[in-house]
Amino acid sequence: MEVWQSPVYCTCLENRRLEMVREFESHRFRHINITMNINKNEWWATPVWEIDSGFDEYFNLALAAELADIKLEKGYDRYDIWDYKTPRLLELKEFMFDALDQTVPEYFGEYYPYNPCFINGWANIQHPGADLPLHDHGGTVLVSTYYVTCEENSGDLLVVDPRMGANWEWIADNGFQGVKYRRITPKAGKFILFPGYVMHMVETNRSNSTRISIATNIHNGRIDKIHTR
To answer: Which listed residue, of 41, 42, 76, 134, carries a Cα 20 to 30 Å from 70's Cα?
Structure first.
């Protein structure tokens, strides 16, 4: 029978356990003093740019007048706003290409070189009570919006998280936790730019004025119909 040997054996185990604990604690406290080398990768991040164009009220009013003339000429038929070479539209187009140069080139590499062009553009004219339902822009590389005229409460742009149901970044809006969108409040002269795959919508225009914006589909590289610089 080895009954009496057991306590001695257990005591040896206990002593060894205490030694291991002391070794662990010693190593742990040494590790606390070590500076960690942490590299955070923002992989698959979705850029959304808000850019103040600097265009003033007089520019935007003149641009709105140009858009009204185009609408009168074309009626309610589908049209491409960039087919028109009016003074303010040309100035806005130049600004938009400059903004693209300062924001998106890093997202294009050697095998897909940066070479932006406008596929088409149109005016979104939203009267009081109007909105835009949830949608995306299909295979378009980039989407932009320029706010020409808008008042307070004319309808925020809601940009939806492309990760959809990912349980990440709990955002609160209007007292509700876990919303899957970010909110952008329109302002005359503001230019918005984001990837075409991003779902988005516009809230109801609850102001007493018409909200006017210009939307543009932007591609990279040559296609059949393009508007370049």
So the answer is: 134
